[in-house]
Amino acid sequence: MPNPAAPDLSTKRRQRVQSAETGMTILKALARLGGAASLTAIAAECGESAAKVHRYLSSLTSEGLVAQHPATQHYHLGPEAVRIGLAALRQCDPVRMGEAALLRLRESLQVTCFIAVMGNMGPTVMRMEEPSLPVTVNIRPGSVLPVVWSASGQAFLAFSQDADLRTRAEAELAAATPEQRAMLGGADPVQALCQRARAQGCATVQDILLAGISAIAAPIYDARGHVAAVLTSLGASNGFDARPDGRVGPSVVQEAQGISAAMGFSASGQPPQP
Questions:
Q1: Is the pTM of this model over 0.85?
Q2: Percent of the chain scored above 90 by pLDDT?
Q3: Rg (CA), the chain
């Protein structure tokens, strides 16, 4: 004999799931609006009626996920939401979060790839993956790369807002040989490097740091819009497509963007590049 209570239990479960989804939609809308907004603005962002959103905001407020400013009556993310956000931020390690991207690039493109972070001495290789037939290069985890002469360094230089990097770049350029300087050219080679990388969305080098080696590097951003790391692929120049829109470049940029998104970065509302 059918259980008359079964449909009711199933309906209640669906309602709870839908309620949870609506609550998450409202929280995400509030985050997109900068973390604080009026009821009207939140409802418009969610595409729901103000009355419905108000009911959910009341429940979220009782749980500490949302709070209301007594003067403006605007809603903002509450202390529990802040704790959740801080816990998530503590897990945002670009090297760990980029491991899958390195494996995908290695397998799909058969190229050497690595993630570098900015250390005290300069761009430092942290995690590296090589194909079954690796290119022989003197770069390993722990290697420190130059700012001007490496794709990784140029990506840090072009996309970060660290003024010290410009100083490092100028020092490297001053110590360069005439032959090295001739590879760059221009009245302001450092600025030219930055402008080219920003226009391309990535930094590219061919036979500059190492003879016969080319590389492409793209920035990885954190939730604040700061460059947290750089994703780089390299290979022998005679078989490596170093064009920004070639075989390798779009994949490197796309993977870097994916890691950035996982780090909490959103391109909307970010300040323009330096």
A1: no
A2: 41
A3: 24
